[in-house]
Design a protein that fits this description.
single chain; 106 residues; mainly alpha; 69% helix; elongated
Length: 106
């Protein structure tokens, strides 16, 4: 719901700042899914990470300028960046682990 007006957003209160965890999870998955689409080519991972960052901040600007009742929340964009960074880190760990596993089986 990045285009939903603020008054139409569901209120979830499992714990404080649950929305930041959701942002991070979405952008973690965003990174992983894009990385999977390119195969195990590490050369694209930095581009995908910066796409996560730009997309996260871009969505916040979009909400500020074009969605009634929404604002720019820098902490949402930071959570998006953290999710992308976690995806980047785990992706590199996975690719390195797979490479070592493959090298050991030769």
């Amino acid at each position: 719901g990045c285009s939903l007006p603020g008054r139409e957003l569901p209120q979830v209160s499992l714990f404080d700042h649950v929305d930041k965890v959701v942002h991070a999870l979405f952008f973690f998955l965003f990174f992983i899914l894009w990385s999977l689409s390119f195969g195990k080519k590490e050369k694209y991972s930095l581009t995908i990470f910066f796409t996560c960052v730009l997309y996260g901040f871009g969505l916040e600007w979009y909400q500020l300028l074009f969605v009634q009742g929404r604002s720019f929340d820098v902490w949402d964009a930071v959570a998006d960046t953290v999710g992308g960074a976690l995806g980047y880190t785990l992706w590199h760990w996975f690719v390195e682990y797979e490479g070592k596993k493959r090298a050991g089986s030769d």
